[in-house]
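Researcher: Structure prediction, please.
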Amino acid sequence: MKSLKIDLEVEDPNEPPAIDVHYEWTQFALWMSGKYGYGNLDGHEIGLSAELVQDLCEWGDRADAVFPADDPASFELSDGFLQEGYELAQRVRAELPAEWVVTAWNPVLGSNVELSLES
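Model: Predicted structure follows.
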């Protein structure tokens, strides 16, 4: 596992750093909590590769392009979009050190799950 240089202030040294990967309109796909506090990130702040950051941003941008801002309750994410998000989360898990907790929606299970390094 590569060593990451993270320029974020430690806010809670007793908690592991955590990332949840999910879509929300006009936001980045990464939602951080734990050791480094709370934030919505594109991924470069935690050392993810430029390719993965770009893929995460493009994933969200595709949904933003069709999101019905005048009727948000009518919006449903397709199974393919959710599966792609889960696959992106697996890539995030693979790039972060073991101390990080990575969670995402698993469309097969229909629930949010913690991804293991072997997933």
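Model: The radius of gyration is 14 Å.
Researcher: Thanks, that helps.
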